[in-house]
Specification:
By secondary structure, the chain is mainly beta. It has one domain: Beta Barrel (Porin). About 5% of the residues lie in helices and about 55% in strands. The chain has a 14-stranded antiparallel barrel with strand order 3-4-5-8-9-10-11-14-15-18-19-21-22-23. Strands 2-1-16 form a three-stranded antiparallel sheet, with no helix packed on it. A two-stranded antiparallel sheet has the order 6-7. The termini are far apart.
Length: about 425
């Protein structure tokens, strides 16, 4: 329990992120992880503006990751670069009454829970690639930033009724998370008769994570203001990861002429080793254990339809194995902490594109939307404090849009945006063909 009554507990959930998408990261039951909903999104400004509906379309260099079979759609050697911007909004329980009526004593006068929000902004080179096509085959090498996430929070300490029916209070907390996963990969595709292609890829993933959480003591539960000084710390929790792993992806694509194509893909999530520790500052006892962080596996299928030469409709379905987050619990408190759950999720993505010929150039107008299933950790056990912190969340709808400009056959620039309540992303990319 995270109350003044019980000094502290820690649980390591072997999990990923993301980082769409998947949406994640190695979870602990530290408060810092209660409100996050990561997504490991597909690379590319064009894909982003089409709501990531790219499995059946699969016609630029980013398909090396999204659906490697689509590499056979490329007819010229090309180099592509993408930069991406993220704004993350992270929500967490801060103060007020998380459960039970207020006592009216001291600071315990607010009858409802009060959540707070922090925002973090991140920019960087998210994708770079080189594609070499042949007559019936294509090879791509690439660098892809699968996840890049930061978050911080500081809580006041909310009041609640504990398991014994007593009025109690959460410890005030300061916490931070810094996570990055970068992959270096190669994909190869072959086209067979009647427009049918198969592609496979392999990538080495480099993972780094640093999570820090400190809880601070309270002199009097009802009247004490938080004191965030180091001398007032009662417990600390950390997660450190610096590891690499190799994973593969594979896809198929059937292109029935220009008007219709259908594809399917499997993307394996890499596994990483990490180390977690918990420290009771009064006793000086430090417990250390090792865990595993698994980026969720993804199964997907997509259909693309072109009613006219100028209009494209693309639809994707993805099955994300979010339940892998909570496989195998590692416990430092020697108590039953089962009850942390995340359901596997279904993503539905719809993208639309309309192109306008401009002499020797082409302007593309794009938009879309996708359904992002809730994949926050929720606690379904009997511990009141854990149920209040890990409540799960709601499904979200992301809205996307963007523009593309192809200057002849050699040069193309694209820009896209993805907007939701918790995450806003912007992307710009450039393609040079030879």
């Amino acid at each position: 329990m995270r109350l003044l009554l019980n000094r502290f507990s820690i649980l390591l959930l072997t999990a990923p992120a993301f980082l769409q998408t998947p949406e994640l990261f190695a979870q602990t039951n530290s408060e810092i992880n209660a409100g996050f909903q990561f997504n490991f999104s597909n690379p590319g400004a064009r894909s982003l503006s089409l709501a990531g509906a790219f499995i059946g379309l699969a016609d630029d260099a980013t398909t090396a990751y999204t659906n490697p079979a689509g590499l056979t759609n490329l007819s010229k050697a090309e180099v592509s670069l993408e930069g991406r911007y993220f704004n993350f909004t992270n929500q967490f329980l801060d103060r007020g009454r998380a459960s039970g009526p207020p006592t009216g004593t001291g600071l315990d006068t607010v009858a409802e829970r009060i959540d707070a929000e922090t925002e973090e902004e991140i920019t960087g080179l998210s994708f770079a690639s080189f594609v070499l096509p042949g007559s019936r085959w294509a090879l791509a090498v690439y660098r892809h930033e699968l996840a890049n996430f930061e978050a911080t929070n500081e809580t006041f300490g909310a009041f609640l009724d504990d398991e014994l029916g007593n009025d109690n209070r959460f410890f005030p907390v300061q916490a931070s998370v810094d996570l990055e996963i970068v992959s270096y990969g190669a994909s190869f595709a072959v086209r067979f008769a009647e427009g049918f292609s198969i592609g496979v890829g392999v990538a080495r993933f480099e993972y780094q994570q640093k999570t820090r959480l400190t809880r601070f003591g309270l002199g009097d539960v009802f009247t004490a203001q938080p004191d965030y000084s180091a001398a007032n710390a009662v417990s600390r929790e950390t997660v450190d990861g610096d590891d690499s792993d190799v994973a593969f992806n594979a896809g198929i694509l059937w292109k029935a002429g220009r008007a219709f194509s259908i594809g399917a893909v499997y993307r394996q999530g890499p596994d990483f080793e990490l180390e977690a520790s918990s420290e009771d500052t009064d006793s000086g006892i430090i417990d250390v254990l090792s865990g595993e962080f698994h980026v969720p596996d993804v199964y997907g299928a997509g259909i693309t339809i072109r009613p006219t030469d100028f209009f494209t409709i693309s639809f994707d379905y993805n099955r994300i194995l979010y339940s892998e987050f909570t496989d195998g619990l590692l416990d430092l408190t020697f108590q039953d902490l089962t009850g942390y759950e995340i359901d596997d999720g279904n993503e539905f993505r719809l993208g639309l594109q309309y192109v306008l010929p401009l002499g020797g150039s082409v302007l593309a107008l794009r938009g879309g939307a996708w359904h992002d299933p809730d994949h926050r950790v929720r606690f379904t056990g009997t511990d009141i404090a854990e149920r209040l912190l890990f409540r799960g969340g709601d499904d979200e709808i992301h809205y996307t849009g963007g523009l593309g400009l192809a200057l002849g056959e050699r040069f193309q620039i694209d820009a896209g945006a993805d907007i939701s309540d918790q995450i806003q992303a912007g992307s710009a990319s450039m393609v040079v063909r030879f």
